[in-house]
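FORM 7B: Structural annotation worksheet

SECTION A. Query
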Amino acid sequence: MAVRSALYEQLVDATGTGAFGDILLDAADEAGGAAEIFAYWFDEGEKPFMIASSGRAGSSKERAAAYAANFFEMDPALSMARGKSSGLRSARFAATEVKHSGYRHKCFEHPGLTEKICCAWSREGRAYAINFYRRRDSSNMTFEGLTSLAEMTLPLLRKHVQLLGDESHLPLPVRVEKRLGRAFPLLSQRERQVCARTLVGMTSEAISLDLSISTTTVLTYRRRAYERYSLSCSQEMMGRIIC
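SECTION B. Predicted structure
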């Protein structure tokens, strides 16, 4: 199944902006019934750095962060992703093939994802990859449709990283913190930290653990940040930092 040219044009236009991940998911859904995507880059011997993440099951960014930090080495597609051939490389496996129980539960069983297609491409010693995930209720996920989309999209990932500039090597919450600092200079450091993690999809409980503060304190910092700039929700804040 091909992606409509209008949708692909939206993806090209979103390159270098915060909308890239959501539009890539829309394209992946249309091309092959994917319910979640995670795009990343990595250098040889290093852990991956998140480029974009989006999903229909909620908390997709939190899962992507857990994959990059803890589960990358357990990925059955790792050897393929680390390949050095210049052309498109791809691998497909079911959740049942994941041997590590923590990885399988966090990234597949809990969100109801049953299958993954990974596509990778390398340039100048750096690998770029996209993970496409299928849910139980998705009947039209096709290997051909998603690999075709990946072949068109992987060069855009490289451009996306270039447009993000020197901050591209930083973890996503830190990059968002920096953007918040530029867009909302009156926020305190803690308010930026809380709001950044909210914008990347972390729950209040996850934020409290990450920052070693209580859940109540998380809610207080977030409320103060919204009130200071007369914002009613995270979507309004996101709209102000998308370039």
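SECTION C. Observations
Residues 172-241 form a domain with the Arc Repressor Mutant, subunit A fold (CATH 1.10.10). The chain has two domains: 5-164, 172-241.

SECTION D. Sign-off
Analyst initials: ____
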